[in-house]
Amino acid sequence: MKRLLVSILFMCWMPYVNAEETRTPLTEPIVIESNELFDGDGEMYTSCGHPAFILRGTGAVLEHVSVQQCEGDDVPAVQVSGLGHQLIDVSIESSGTGLLIENSYGVRVIRTLIQGNGQADGIVLLNSEASELKGVVAKEVRDGIYIENGSRHKIVRPIISHSRYGIHLMFPTDVVISVPELHHNLTGAMIMGTDRVTFQNGNVHDQFGGTATGLMLYEAVDTIIEMTHIYGNHIGLYAEQSEGTILERNAINGNDIGFQLKQASGMMILRNNLLGNREPVTMFKSSENVVQGNVWGGTTLDLNRDGYSEIPFRTDPYLFLLTDSYEAFELLYGSPGLLLLENILRSPEDVSLTDGSPQTDSAIWHWNGSIWSVGSIFLLIIIWIFGRKRHEIV
């Protein structure tokens, strides 16, 4: 009877396994034109030397397909151009670029999975407008999402790991990145030459390698980074030659350096939590910024119990200058000797970064009991002391 049941289960399972392993080789791309729908019903297509699918025209839809590229391919697995196309539940094993979107408007990419080999990008948007990427997962690619030029893109809930840059922006404007999960990349997100980028409600953690930077801003203008948890990196956030950046209500914890500023001006650093970093901030030529209400740790004094300290927090460019010349000195962050040198070689106020009213991080206890509760506790203690047995040791 037992052997019969095993045989029946084996016979029922075999067609399912064979269906999963079925692959359809393509000798030429499948072209999806305007208003056409291609539903692959979960089938896998393999392509060598050419894209598996090309979407062009207006309003084409590709859904429920898997694509596998031949090893060594340097062409995109899926190529898109035109207006209003949609890609839904597409899975790509790529050697070249996973998905190339160029000269397009209003393309939507939903629940797309890209597994690469580290040699090419996952999703590339070139000279496109108003694209929407939702639920993209990319792993072991060069850049998870690479955007060059264009504007009004929305990226929602991307999960990108084990790549060079999780998200790489080059010169786009008006980009919104919501709820990203970027981990175990060389850099979580590189934001360069941009205007009006918003990065919010994310987790950026555990980047690796020599730089291991959570977020990197270079020549970025009017960037907003808010309500994001940045932890476990070498540098949580690095900003250079960037203007008008707003860092608000972020938790930047457990990094070697919380954030590092170099020639970054016009910033607003408000209500961030920077506890648990070896060094909360280092800076150089970045003094013209508004810094207020952050949690830094260290000495605080809250006289009026409003949650803000009357003792300002002050950082000094001395540490940045020292480690910029000799990176090995980063190993000494937080050491008594380095803190002593910082105080002896104190920089002028006009080149330092000061939070005039940092938040306090001390706990405040409030008693919600009554006199009867206190009396009962003391009575129980007295009964326990005098009621227990005492044994004399002879």
Automatic annotation (TrEMBL):
Record keyword Membrane present: yes
Pfam families: NosD
Keyword Transmembrane helix: yes
Alphabetical UniProt keywords: Membrane, Signal, Transmembrane, Transmembrane helix
Domain Periplasmic copper-binding protein NosD beta helix: 114-299
Residue ranges of the TM segments: 364-386
Signal peptide location: 1-19
Protein name: NosD domain-containing protein
Source species taxonomy: Bacteria, Bacillati, Bacillota, Bacilli, Bacillales
